[in-house]
Automatic annotation (TrEMBL):
It is found in: Nucleus. One of its GO terms (cellular component) is nucleus. InterPro entries: AP2/ERF_dom, AP2/ERF_dom_sf, DNA-bd_dom_sf. Belongs to the AP2/ERF transcription factor family. ERF subfamily. Residues 1-24, 121-153 are annotated as: Disordered. Residues 121-132 have a biased composition (Low complexity). It comes from Gossypium raimondii. This is AP2/ERF domain-containing protein. Probably acts as a transcriptional activator. Binds to the GCC-box pathogenesis-related promoter element. May be involved in the regulation of gene expression by stress factors and by components of stress signal transduction pathways. It comes from the Eukaryota. Residues 29-86 form the AP2/ERF domain. GO terms for molecular function: DNA binding; DNA-binding transcription factor activity.
Amino acid sequence: MELGDCCLTSSPASGEKRKLHRTQQKEKPFRGIRMRKWGKWVAEIREPNKRSRIWLGSYTTPVAAARAYDTAVFYLRGPSARLNFPDLIFQEDELRDISAASIRKKATEVGAKVDALQTSLHHASASSSESSNPTRVFRKPDLNKYPDSSGED
């Protein structure tokens, strides 16, 4: 057995780790979020020096979940925090109480706004492409919205 033979056994293991890391990057495009089996994106963060987590919400887009995470991590760890979108964070003076509840509230507000914007942009692009197609496409209703009173009876 030569000296080079022993190193061959450790090489595939490191290759497998790299492959696993690449697949995790594909599944998880941003920090602090994960995708549920049914397609929703969720965000949560650990409280500093505690084992508990702060639930930041469930969103239809990964960008919304990542923005909610960014908001929470910014208020927990300050400007030195590693953010998904460092250019999009705005420090506001309105969040003086840095409790878990206030951070959760602020993060879910940001996430909900981004989710609504992302969803409306997606639906606008989908409806513009459908306008050329005369067949009607039925979509599942968003149960988080109030019914539209446009008179479609």
